[in-house]
Write a structure and sequence with these properties.
The protein contains 12 helices and no strands. With 269 residues, it is mainly α.
């Protein structure tokens, strides 16, 4: 319950930060360049006099959107593929798992680079590209968990009583695999938040001049020695966002412990 409330508050914070900033993040004031932290500018200003805090907040909603799209695309595609391979005929299962292996080998950021070079990279296209590049681990994990769950006593009993395949997946097999998949989803979401920042650092995240954490790291590199806080602010934003996603999405209980304990007592209806 506490994690759900914390996750909801984090989502609201990302959304509010994306649409409200104390200053215009693109407003240039050369007379106030490299201003120290103050009440008007809590994190100071950059080399063009732009408010650093406002620029950080402006990118929050884009990062949240990318992580959400990646999580939905990679987990749904990978889980569907891995589960289908468990029940498919041997030849089709082998083909599906070969596709999963290819998805596992190809780094998601490479697909993001290709999408950025061919079509241009917006938060939506970046999320889809990174999600399609990250379904492989979910497919492998879902396939292994589904195969293991099929031999559990309550699942075998359900199948013996004539429970349909889809119902068995939803009612018996899915809950046993949910905690493990959520654990991986937490670390995967954090990893893709960093991947999106990496794409922006390479100049493939947003339009030139738009605030983006990765792009800010690239833009502030020449001022790293004289004004290190310019690099520190977006770096901490990336790190803390990734850490929060990992902590909030990962289940509080050990993966599978609670589910398996309930599964042993679940009636095979």
């Amino acid at each position: 319950m506490r994690r759900s409330v914390a996750a909801a508050l984090l989502a609201v914070l990302f959304l509010v930060a994306g649409w409200w900033q104390p200053h215009d993040p693109a407003a240039i004031d050369l007379a106030a360049r490299h201003a120290e932290a103050s009440a008007a500018h809590p994190l100071g200003t950059d080399h063009l006099g732009r408010d650093v805090l406002s620029r950080l907040l402006a990118d929050a909603a884009r990062t949240a959107l990318v992580v959400l799209i990646v999580a939905v695309v990679s987990s749904s595609v990978g889980t569907a593929l891995g589960t289908t391979a468990t029940f498919a005929p041997p030849a089709l299962a082998a083909a599906l798992m070969l596709l999963a292996d290819l998805g596992l080998i190809l780094p998601p950021i490479v697909l993001g680079l290709a999408a950025g070079a061919l079509f241009g990279l917006s938060p939506v296209s970046a999320g889809i590209a990174l999600g399609l590049g990250g379904f492989g681990p979910f497919a492998i994990l879902a396939h292994g968990l589904t195969r293991r769950a099929r031999v559990l006593p309550h699942v075998r009993a359900a199948e013996a009583l004539g429970v349909g395949r889809l119902r068995a997946i939803v009612r018996h097999i899915g809950p046993d695999a949910l905690d493990v998949l959520r654990t991986y989803l937490g670390s995967d979401a954090a990893r893709h938040a960093i991947s999106y920042a990496s794409l922006a650092f390479l100049g493939l995240g947003v339009e030139v001049g738009q605030p983006d954490w990765g792009a800010m790291l690239f833009e502030y590199r020449p001022h790293m020695l004289e004004h290190p806080t310019l690099m520190l602010a977006p770096g901490l934003a990336i790190f803390l966002s990734a850490l929060a996603l990992h902590i909030l999405i990962e289940p509080a209980t050990a993966p599978g412990r609670r589910r398996h304990g309930q599964g042993a007592r679940r009636p095979a209806s």
